[in-house]
Write a structure and sequence with these properties.
This protein is α+β, with helices and mostly antiparallel strands. The chain has a single domain, classed as hypothetical protein PF0899 fold, CATH 3.30.2320.80. The strands form 2 sheets. Strands 2-1-6 form a 3-stranded mixed β-sheet.
Length: 113
Amino acid sequence: MHELSLCGAIADIVTRRAGERHVAAVHLRIGVLRQVVPDTLAFCWTMVTGDTDLGGAALEVERVDAVLHCRECRRTLPMGEAVSLACTGCGSFAVDVVAGDEFEVTALDLAAV
């Protein structure tokens, strides 16, 4: 369950950035290729933050679909339901992941000091 360690890292980042201000919500962008289960992440967040100044802060997760760019046919296409690093247009494996591997804290909803 790597979500637990991810929540610890997120809490550290948020605590440093928020300072003395109360955090109402933490906004994240997580790509589907990161193999993070949103429900597990939310559960672990409550475990990590429950008895801290971050207790009660919500996690707002934006999921990012995987998108591949093919170096053969030069198209940029969604990966689709099946996780495959092959172009869904021509079948080539000469692809670059252009979206779907993100894991970012994008914003904090903070109360005024």
